User: Fold these one by one.
Assistant:
Number 1:
Amino acid sequence: MSLFSPFRIGPLELPNRIVMAPLGRARAHVERREPTASVVAYYVQRATAGLIVSEATHVAFDSVSRPGTAAIHTDGQVEAWRRVTDAVHAAGGRIFQQLFHLGRKADPERLPYVGLPKAPSAIAAMGEFSTPSGPRPFPVPRALATDEVAGIVAEFRAAAANARRAGFDGVEIHGANGFLIDQFLRDAANQRDDAYGGPVQNRARFLLEVVDAVASVFGAERVGVRLSPHAKADGMGDSTPANTFEHAARQLGQRGLAYLHLIEPVGTAREDALAPVVRRAFPGPLILCGGFERASAQAALDEARADLIAFGVGFIANPDLVERLRRDAPWNVPDTATFYSGGDKGYTDYPFLNVAPC
């Protein structure tokens, strides 16, 4: 199989196996968290991807971080995202919306109430985050009561309904990178003793309830899930990762999902690799992401380690990444200083092939 051969996920026929990974860029409206005209242009530029997965999008008012991150819990946000999906579809593209809740990584200074972020357990994320008054350590969050969990599942369901109203082709549930679902899944952040803690069957319960709720809106064939078994930032980790992610993959595989999206860096040592474990447990399409370039991506397909390959930074700096991969052409160098800076510089102004920079 080739990076450029078609592939089907659910009802969607993709023209290639190149996925634009979800990339937070902080370009939404600062206060309303609605995508702007620049966001529309950004995604349209990249519509040749087999599938675009949008930036992580907040499902609720109390999942709040840096200004400019997008959300999908108000009518205004739905209308603004509709402009994105309409434009991507007009350009021939396909786009899923990634849905997430920050959990313990929410900024308490921006919460709509006085209090602490919510999490499975009262364990602070490690490190610091930026605030209007300067860097501060993550606070110790408030552990959710058992009867509160259903309310957050309902927020994901409502967000999925909004994503459908906004015209997305499907949704990806963000179960990775130390956010709320990942916090429940891995035992470094989850020390509960109720139905959502302890053995992996309990720790995976929240993820599966969210998946089932979202699938009730879109249909399972239009729902993907992203997992990151190796992510250790912010104090994340798991005592038995192979067992945890094999269980999660097996349970997800019984639900007929569009795909499973796994972050596993290209340089992961063979003895630490979990993609083979996940591949055996999950019978549906598998997307791999983690620093791939043309040769390593094609090798992963040739060796049947994945069905599709997601590119992150490559799509930031190369709106025409699909064509560059096709021609084996050089890639633009990303300007890391502009990743979250706001404005069009480093966002919509990267040159296309055969177009000199301004």
Note: The chain has eleven helices and 15 strands.
Number 2:
Amino acid sequence: MKSLSLPLVAGLLLVTAGCSDATGPNAGQGRMDLSFAVALAGAQAAAAETMTLGGNTLVVDRVQLVLREVELKRARGTADCSSSSGSGRSDDCEELEIGPFLLDLPLGGGIARAVSIVVDTGTFRELEFEVHKPEDDGRDREFLAQHPDFARVSIRVDGTYNGTPFVFLSDLNVEQEIDLVPPLVVAEAASTNLTLSVDLGQWFLNAFGTSFVNPGSANKGGANEGLVKDNIKQSFEAFEDHDRDGRHD
């Protein structure tokens, strides 16, 4: 298992890590970039931050997520991921102990590269990561020293709903498992890009998908807290994206 821990920074991370040569992949290795994009499926968008549906207008000025523990799972038969060591994993299974870190989602139709890593070559079938609610323990203490407003908060959205300002805060704490279809192939001495797309237009949909709920009603204890948490969990998609345009190749 390849494990690494990245320094905590505000906003996007741009780092390179590997087992040895930091200037590029070695024999049997390739480079993978993990990028983030925002989709607005299901809503009419005047701009990437402005959505209108069912007579309600949602303007999103900023979206911040706390993420950690990105893991790539190999396709069956491409490596033996059982381990003879006490860790329960072998060196052929990639697990990137990243974070927690604070990610600003790219709005305005952009795409942002969050991390660049050197990984062993092979075919990977699944991406796992955790939307993380920081607690006052372990690695979270260092994170919270830099971002105290995110104590027990994994997601923050700032914007307006029908012209009225809102701040949406969530304590969602969940591991996401996303199938890669087709699987991601990392070739020796080559670079590939995996994009994690977030359908922001889905987050605040009502139960019928016909309009938006007021994001303020989805805060802790609000009537739509559970609905929006479920929407968020269903909003992630990952795919190979060589040209980095936020769409399937």
Note: The helical segments are 140-146, 200-203, 225-233.
